[in-house]
Amino acid sequence: MKICGKLSRPKLPPWIKVKVGVGEREAVADTLADLRLNTVCSGAMCPNLGECFCRGTATFLIMGSSCTRNCKFCAIDHNQKPLPVETDEPARVAEAVRRLKLKYAVITSVTRDDLPDGGARYFAETIRLIKALPTAVEVEVLTPDFNLDLDALRVVLADRPTVFNHNIETVRRLSGQIRYQATYDKSLALLRAAGEMAPDVPTKSGIMVGLGETDEEIIEAMRDLRDSGVSILTVGQYLPPSAEHWPLDRYVTPEMFKEFEEIARKLGFSAVASGPLVRSSYHAGELIKNKGV
Q1: Residues 23-48, mean pLDDT to the nearest whole number
Q2: Less crowded by CB within 10 Å, the N or C end of the chain?
């Protein structure tokens, strides 16, 4: 709800509790700072940052910290003319993976509509360098839509990431209002094309809830994703980053998240993570290994 044009977020319900934890937080932060790397954990103000850093994991955000798009749900900085990509960044990401002794790395990016291929070659190079490390590491990529440039998509998939992820974000009715330049059907088409190009690479997508959609619309989006060949699904609670972002409509209960998970499994998804604090890359390695979180 809004009051005088400002977001009035209701008090957090008791089931939304961020884990603080202890562990490798300083080591992760120091490694990222030393190698001058960005993470979506910080850029997108993820509520799980503390837990993931303490577990010694992070989701790397490549190609800078400014996005050429300005989606209404996202906290990442918006700039139509971001800084040039640093060509040694893929090597620095691979070095961070080595230092942190990761077994499963998640690589995402800001959207770079200013680049001819949307940055596909930087995803590909990052995958290659991580795979070249002495210790085997699985690599999941969470990409923008590349403006449905299938040649760019082919470049990323040629290096066979463990999982190809692209988020649909919200239901069809709200997509045009919330997502800048991206479209619901473009996202479905990208996911479908990824599955056709690389049938050995599982496709994954995520939905936020609490933006004003109905439960029926969420289930419809799940069906659309399955029909597009997506096999891995995440469903999480939307939390507005600020009063200037899209307003919160509701907090979804844990019971409803459980119901979404059960429906998704009946629809044929092989791995599902559905819960208030679930985010697209949250416990990504465990999700693939255990088929759930």
Answers
A1: 69
A2: N
